[in-house]
Design a protein that fits this description.
By secondary structure, this protein is an all-alpha fold.
Length: 252
C-alpha cells in the first residue's frame, strides 16, 4: 500500500506525533515553516525528485543573500534577504520530510543538509550586517563595522554547535510518565532557542523601525548566550566511564 503523501495526511501525522515536541524546542519552525514544507513535499513527492536535490536547491538561495544585501535598493534588499532566509528555512524543513515520507533517508543526505545549514547562518548573519552598514551610512557601504560584528556572531553560533557536538552520546534516559514540569528558566530557554527561525521576521521589523544595528547587537548577544548554554549542556553531567579519572588530557 502506497503511503498517503497529501498535505492533509502529512500535516495530520505531524500534529499527532511531533508538533508538541518541536513547538517546545524550535517553535518558529513549527509555526512558520512546517506547513509550507509539507505542502512542498506533497507537490514534489509524485515527481520523484530526490531529497538531496531539494537540499542542493537551497545553495543558490544562500548565495543570493549577500548579493541582494549589497546590490538591491535598500528597502528591497532587506525584504529580499528576509524572504530568501524564510525560503531556506522552508526548504530545510522540506528535504528531511521528503526523505522520511518517501523512505529515502540517508546519513550522507543528513550530513549534506547539516553542512549547508551551518553555512547558511554565516551568510544570513553577514547579510544582516551588510544591511546594517548600509543603513548606518545612508544607503551606501562606507564601512563594514556591523558586517564584521555580524560575522563574529555567526562564528560564535557555529562554535556553539561544535561544543554541543563534542559531548559524547549518553544512554537514553527512561521516559517519565505525565507532563514534564517546567520552571521559568526552562520556558525562557525554550523561547530563546526557537528564535532562530523567527529572524527573517525580526529582520523586517528591525529594518522598518530603523533598528538594524540593534538587531546585529542582539545576534551577537544571542550567539554568546548560545555558546554559554552549549558549554553548560555539554559539561554539566558529563557521562563518565571507567577510564575517566577527571584528569586533564590533551588532544595530541
Amino acid at each position: 500500500m502506497r503511503p498517503d503523501l497529501t498535505f492533509r495526511s502529512l500535516w495530520r501525522q505531524y500534529r499527532q506525533d511531533k508538533f508538541a515536541k518541536e513547538l517546545a524546542t524550535d517553535w518558529a519552525a513549527a509555526l512558520l515553516y512546517r506547513a509550507p514544507g509539507f505542502w512542498l513535499v506533497a507537490l514534489l513527492a509524485p515527481t520523484g525528485i530526490s531529497p538531496t536535490a531539494v537540499t542542493l536547491a537551497a545553495v543558490p538561495v544562500v548565495l543570493a543573500m549577500p548579493l541582494a544585501a549589497l546590490t538591491l535598493p535598500l528597502a528591497a534588499a532587506a525584504v529580499a534577504v528576509a524572504l530568501l532566509a524564510a525560503l531556506f528555512q522552508t526548504l530545510d524543513c522540506t528535504d528531511g520530510a521528503l526523505a522520511r515520507a518517501t523512505g529515502r533517508s540517508s546519513a550522507r543526505g543528513g550530513a549534506l543538509d547539516f553542512v549547508i545549514d551551518m553555512g547558511q547562518w554565516g551568510f544570513f548573519y553577514t547579510s544582516i550586517g551588510l544591511l546594517a552598514d548600509r543603513v548606518a551610512a545612508g544607503d551606501t557601504v562606507a564601512g563594514f563595522f556591523w558586517t564584521a560584528l555580524a560575522a563574529v556572531a555567526a562564528w560564535l553560533r557555529l562554535y556553539a554547535r561544535v561544543i554541543r557536538d563534542a559531548r559524547p552520546a549518553a544512554p537514553t534516559a527512561p521516559a517519565v510518565p505525565g507532563p514534564a514540569r517546567l520552571g521559568v528558566f526552562d520556558i525562557l530557554e525554550r523561547g530563546i532557542s526557537g528564535l532562530s527561525g523567527a529572524l527573517p521576521v525580526l529582520l523586517i521589523l528591525a529594518f522598518f523601525t530603523g533598528t538594524l544595528p540593534a538587531l546585529v547587537v542582539f545576534l551577537l548577544a544571542y550567539s554568546l548566550l548560545d555558546v554559554g548554554d552549549a558549554a553548560l549542556a555539554t559539561f554539566r553531567g558529563w557521562p563518565r566511564d571507567s577510564g575517566d579519572t577527571g584528569e586533564e588530557s590533551g588532544g595530541a
